[in-house]
Amino acid sequence: MLAKGIDVPAASPAAPPTSVTDASTRLLGRPAGTGTSSDTLSNEPEQELFPAAAVVLTRRLLDILRLVAEDAGYFGNWSLAAGANRLKGRRSSMGAGSWMTFGANPAYSEDIYQEATGATLAELNSAAGAVTLRLLGPLLRSLNMQAVYDKALTDTA
Hints:
Blueprint: E1 2-3, E2 26-27, E3 35-38, E4 45-49, H1 51-72, E5 78-84, E6 91-92, E7 113-119, H2 121-126, H3 128-142, H4 150-153
Parallel strand pairs: 4-6
Antiparallel strand pairs: 1-2, 1-5, 3-4, 5-7
């Protein structure tokens, strides 16, 4: 779901990188909508989104990139992207006010989410929350969930 490149669908295996510039860092996990909740109108299970996983994994990826950059002596810029597919009509499993408010949450209106940004080593060191916000902010706002993750999206001095 989250990647420093574009997400490759599971059905088509990715070819190995042919050079260093072709390589990408990917966070692989279960698909974004594999949890289910019962839809009260049709009694069919509806897949849920877990935005907390995206926020936590993005922050961890940024920490890993910071450590790799420091260890390798790389002080340049990073190009980062977050993406997910098969999202249309899916809702967050958690409401803005409390847990287990699934049916009242807004549904995501697009099938694909993708957002890209750049980050410097200085940002990875002291503004990882701002970088996370640039990557995931539009998704969290559309799900009415940004306020829930304000602490993870805010940097303290």
